[in-house]
Amino acid sequence: MTSWLLEFSNLHYTYPGGQKSVLNGVSLGIPEGKKCALLGRNGCGKSTLFLHANGILQPQQGQVSWRGNPFVYKRSFLQEMTQKVGLVFQDPEHQLIASTVSEDISYGLFNRKLPPEVIREKVGNILETFGMTELAEVPIHHLSLGQKRRLAVAGVMVLEPELLLLDEPTAYLDRYQTKNLLRELDHIHQNGTTVLMATHDMDIAFEWAEWICVMDGGRLIFAGEPQEALAQREMLESLHLGMPLLAEVWEVLPESLKRDMGGIPRSVEELKKKLEAKQEVASV
Ligand SMILES: Nc1ncnc2c1ncn2[C@@H]1O[C@H](COP(=O)(O)OP(=O)(O)OP(=O)(O)O)[C@@H](O)[C@H]1O
């Protein structure tokens, strides 16, 4: 049986004064140690679900559990959850509060009342990990959007969460910045953090994630491995998510080539490698 690090069970939520319920019985488990993607069209409730992951919002019905233990909506428990679950908002402007890069990263550590020398060391290490050492004293309003996004992730990661949730972290990033961010997330994941990313981008989800969830209308409608998601063409197209580009390319390849290549490659690099290997065999 899969062990869920965080589990949402039958959550219902309507915003105060809202006309419509946003979460309509969503049940979704985040498997420990995996890179996960949450897909769904605009307004289906992804961000609202994220706000339930560390108790910022409390469900009106249903339950959130951490390692099988239901959330208790009391200050001490919620403080513990904000440490275990790091949340990176869609808009970094909502997250960055201090005036310079290093001050911003220090903020959460100061709140934890850590000794100044420990804070200095942690900030220095995280700046190095994120390649931002030279930006330490730069005012936040001088940063590019890509740098702000990296800083928002760094500011959460310095608190060493066990689960990192990112709300559309690649939105508005160019290909180069997107690749860098995904590489950083891989690094974070290799160091033992479970990662869940909300995205509209099926190509990123297919290439990067090991577990894919799809929401619609405040409910979960699919959860499974990326290859299983490919069997859901009709559902993915009806939600305007579409199929990954590589799956579309795969469709038009000759059957003999597909047989030799095994399954659909997960990335362009994997496709190239498989094609080159095939050419080498053919030229022997
Ligand atoms: N603070 C709020 N007050 C009232 N309604 C809200 C609030 N935040 C979000 N909503 C509404 O809740 C619904 C779900 O929004 P949410 O941001 O959770 O969806 P989403 O799937 O993350 O969308 P997107 O992909 O566009 O970011 C939308 O109809 C939105 O207008």
From TrEMBL:
Gene3D superfamilies reported for this sequence: P-loop containing nucleotide triphosphate hydrolases (3.40.50.300)
CDD domains named in the record: ABC_cobalt_CbiO_domain1
Localization in the cell: Cell membrane
Domain of life: Bacteria
GO MF: ATP binding
Positions of the ABC transporter domain: 6-242
UniProt-recorded name of the protein: Cobalt ABC transporter ATP-binding protein
Coiled-coil ranges (or none): none
Family recorded in the similarity comment: Belongs to the ABC transporter superfamily.
Source lineage: Bacteria, Bacillati, Bacillota, Bacilli, Bacillales
Keyword Translocase assigned: yes
Keyword Manganese among record annotations: no
Keywords (A to Z) from UniProt: ATP-binding, Cell membrane, Membrane, Nucleotide-binding, Translocase, Transport
Principal localisation: membrane
Pfam families registered for this protein in UniProt: ABC_tran
